[in-house]
Write a structure and sequence with these properties.
Elements (H helix, E strand, L loop, with lengths): L14 H31 L4 H10 L3 H13 L4 H25 L4 H29 L2 H32 L2 H25 L15 H13 L1 H31 L4 H20 L1 H16 L2 H6 L4 H4 L2 H12 L2 H16 L2 H37 L1 H16 L3 H4 L2 H5 L7 H4 L1
């Protein structure tokens, strides 16, 4: 196997990474508009039930655990930039189906399920290729900075996407809103192609083409479980995703049906959450250095602890309470993501990085569809028993309570004392 950091794959600086970053901002913006509008269409236009919304969210993430495991070894044998722009083109096409169906009067829940499933497949392929390409362009502190910029791009899109989506639904309707998503992926394709011309040969396959064996598929899991800090972080992330996706499924229903907010108002609430995440992403590098790697990991679950307060929104000033919770809780998640991603890229050998990343994603994201299903079913049961306002707010809090269990795997003196990524390299050797 060739080494992704050897002479044939030199570090080329951050100019190419910056070009990819611009494309990611545009692509993610369109995605956030659609990810906001699609459930809104389901709830307000198709009158979907709580279970329908849970299934929709689950279908949109079911490809994560199924595909990451299988695709990881294969993507390492393909040209990475080609994987990225083909994935962008495919997502542009599939998201364009929804506005066409709405305009023709053929929109349905099965159609939304299909779009969510297909788009998630190509999102997995894009993510795997991007995660393997970035460490070829930058290293060390610059790698951490680029991961921070990626989180900032994501949170910037989350900041702008929901209010833009809500405003476009109100002014122009869902057809124009969803059309924006397809255009944004075309812009991302352009950035990927330009990157390829800036750094020709960068996307050379990490591994020579050959038949993928069972040992190839399992190698990432074995490495992930053998290294204590990676094992702890993976278990913690899985618990966090399980609980928070149950909570998020119930939250959207609570905002629309429990607090009776409009699409524009809900969009502004999620913009407040994204603003908090933007603050965390912008300061992630400085905070990680001040808190240390271990301290940054331990503070990640603060998000779920604050979400336990959502039932207070039922008592009064619901929109204001929800805004405050979403803003403050969102600060810590980008810091957690930057820490986890950089940790893997810094301590995992390049020849197995793709498979370790795929294994981690399989486990961590595998709890998302389960959480979404449980959130939808639980929200429906609690709303039937206690009414929309109290029942759905309790469902949000119960999901957050499950997510707080992420603290347990990280409750270790060794985790807390680690100040730098280098402190964990001895676990690998």
């Amino acid at each position: 196997m060739s080494d992704g950091r050897a002479k044939d794959l030199p570090v080329l600086g951050d100019r190419a990474a910056s070009c990819l970053w611009v494309g990611q901002v545009l692509s993610t913006l369109g995605s956030q508009v659609s990810f906001f509008i699609i459930p809104t269409v389901a709830i307000t236009y198709l009158h979907a039930s709580e279970s329908d919304v849970g299934v929709l969210n689950a279908v949109g993430s079911v490809a994560f655990p199924l595909l990451y495991l299988v695709a990881g070894p294969f993507v390492g044998r393909w040209r990475l930039l080609r994987v990225m722009y083909v994935s962008d083109i495919a997502r542009a096409v599939v998201f364009a189906v929804i506005p066409l169906a709405l305009a023709a009067g053929y929109a349905s829940m099965p159609l939304l399920y299909g779009v969510a499933l297909v788009s998630s497949v190509f999102s997995v392929l894009f993510d795997l290729a991007y995660s393997a390409l970035l460490p070829r362009l930058v290293r060390g502190e610059e790698l951490e900075r680029q991961n921070g910029r990626l989180q900032l791009a994501f949170t910037m899109a989350r900041l702008v996407g929901p209010p833009v989506g809500g405003l476009m639904v109100k002014v122009a309707g869902v057809v124009a809103s969803l059309a924006l998503n397809s255009v944004s992926f075309v812009a991302s394709v352009i950035s990927v192609v330009v990157t390829g011309r800036m750094v020709p040969g960068t996307d050379t396959p990490v591994e020579a083409p050959r038949r993928v064996t069972r040992s190839d598929l399992m190698a990432g899991f074995h490495f992930l479980w053998r290294i204590p800090i990676l094992r702890r972080a993976t278990v913690a992330s899985s618990l966090h995703n399980l609980g928070m996706n149950a909570a998020r499924t119930a939250l959207l229903l609570f905002l629309y049906r429990g607090l009776d907010l409009s699409a524009a108002e809900v969009g502004l609430l999620f913009a407040a959450e994204a603003l908090g995440a933007t603050v965390g992403a912008a300061r992630s590098t400085q905070l990680i250095r001040r808190l240390g790697v271990g301290g940054s990991l331990l503070l990640g679950p603060l998000e779920s602890i604050l979400w336990l307060l959502f039932p207070i929104a039922v008592i009064g000033h619901g929109a204001a309470v929800a805004t405050a919770i979403l803003f403050v809780s969102a600060v810590w998640l980008p810091i957690w993501n930057v820490t986890i991603t950089t940790l893997r890229q810094e301590i995992v050998p390049p020849d197995i990085l793709m498979r370790v990343h795929a294994a981690s994603r399989t486990v961590v994201l595998g709890t998302i569809p389960l959480g979404s299903l449980l959130g939808g079913v639980g929200a429906g049961a609690l709303a039937s028993r206690f009414g929309d306002a109290w029942g759905l707010s309790i469902a949000v809090a119960l999901g957050a309570l499950v997510a707080t269990a992420a603290l347990q795997p990280l409750a270790s003196r060794d985790v807390f004392r680690a100040k730098d990524y280098a402190d964990y390299r001895q676990e690998v050797s």
